[in-house]
Design brief:
This protein is mostly beta strands. The protein is built from no helices and 8 strands. The protein is globular, with a radius of gyration of 13 Å.
């Protein structure tokens, strides 16, 4: 996970080249990580577009685009979406340092 002690992860990157790592899935194919993510946009007035790269950065196959309203509290991004085989979940936003992402991972047997 890209989090320290369960803290939120600030989205500092504004492109795929500067994405932040949110989670690296379990290795191998025996287990699956079920990932739930929330985001908060701390900008005072502007909505922010978040891009999640789910295991790869191929558009449109692996990208999820979500608009987060300004100062509207936590916003659910994904709920228990599966990922495995050491794939990485990354994120970037249309403006750096406004969005913080929180998450939870459940590791289950396949």
């Amino acid at each position: 996970s890209g989090s320290t002690d369960g803290k939120g992860i600030k989205v500092t990157g504004t492109s795929s080249a500067a994405d932040v790592t949110l989670h690296t899935a379990t290795s191998g194919s025996g287990d699956i990580d079920l990932v739930t993510l929330w985001a908060v946009n701390n900008d005072a007035s502007a909505s922010r577009l978040i891009t999640l790269a789910w295991g790869a950065e191929t558009s449109p196959d692996n990208l999820i685009f979500i608009t987060i309203p300004a100062r509207a509290g936590l916003h659910l991004l994904v709920d228990r979406m599966p990922i495995m085989n050491s794939l990485v979940i990354g994120a970037w936003a249309d403006e750096a340092d406004d969005v913080v992402i929180y998450g939870r991972v459940e590791r289950v047997d396949k």
